[in-house]
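HUMAN: Please help interpret these C-alpha cells:
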Amino acid sequence: MFSGKRLANPGIAGIRGNWGTERANGRRFDNIRSQRATATQLPTLKGVIATLAFLSLHALKRASLYLSNTDAMFTGLVEGQGTVRRIASLPAGLRLSIVPTTAPFSATDVHLGDSISISGCCLTVVAAGADGMDFEAGEETLSKTSLGRLREGSSVNLERSLAVGARLGGHFVQGHVDGTAVVDQICRSDEWIDMWFRTSGEHIRLMVPKGSIAVDGVSLTLVNIETDRFSVALIPHTLQVTTLGQRQVGDLINIENDILGKYVARLLQQMMPSAAPPAVSQVSATVASMGIDSLRIEGQSDS
C-alpha cells in the first residue's frame, strides 16, 4: 500500500505516509471522500422514522391549534338518535326539523346557535324548543353528504359538541364530512357485524388499518382496507344505540377521515410537490396512526 520503504513501526509517520500515498495515487482519496459524503445523504431507516415522527408531532400541533380555535368538535360517541319530523325547501338548501327519540339526548339541552352532529355532519341550531330543533343545510353540505336523501321519518345520529374538560372517548371528529360511501356487504357473526363500505380512492388513501374513521358520525376502528372499500366491526351496543343497526346494503352513509391524516397529507404535499398523491396519502395515513399513539402516550405521561 505504501510507495517506498516499508516502515517498521508506522505510528504517525505511517499515517502521514499513507495519506501522502493516497494523494499521490491521483484522485482515489477524493473519490472515497466523495462517496462517503454521498452515502451520508442517502435516506436511512432512522432518517425516515425521524421524519415521520416530526411530521406526526407537527400535525398534532396543527390539529391542536385548529381544535383550540374552532367553535365545535365532536368525539364520535353518539349521544342518541333523532327522527326527521319535517323537511322544507329553501332557496339554497333545506331546513330540517329533528326530534330526539332516545335518551340521554334531549331537546331541552339544546340552545339556539349550538353545533350538533347530524349523522356526522356539523349543523347549527337555528330554532330550538321542547318539541325539537331545526337546522339548515346548504347546497355544499347536501352535495357532499347523505343529508339530501333524508325523508320525513328518517333516523339520524345525534351528538352535541364536546364540552371543555370532557373526556375524549372516541377520536377528534370535526363534523366536516369528507364524502360518502355505500354499504357494500354485511357479514353477521351472532350479534356482531362486519360491515363493508365502498368509496372512492381519494378517501381510501387516507385510511390505515387500526386507524380511526367516523361513519355517520360514529367513531369506529378500521379493520380491513382494500383499493375501493373498507370494513369496520360493529358490536351489539353500537348497533343498538346508533343508526348503523338499521343500515342495509346499498345505503349511503357519511364518512370523515382522521384529521391527523389530512394535515399530514397537506404537509407532505407542500414538502414534496412532485410526489404522486397516492404515495403522499399512504405515508400521511401511517404518520397519522403514529400521531394518535404519541398523543395517547403523552396524555398518560402527563397524568
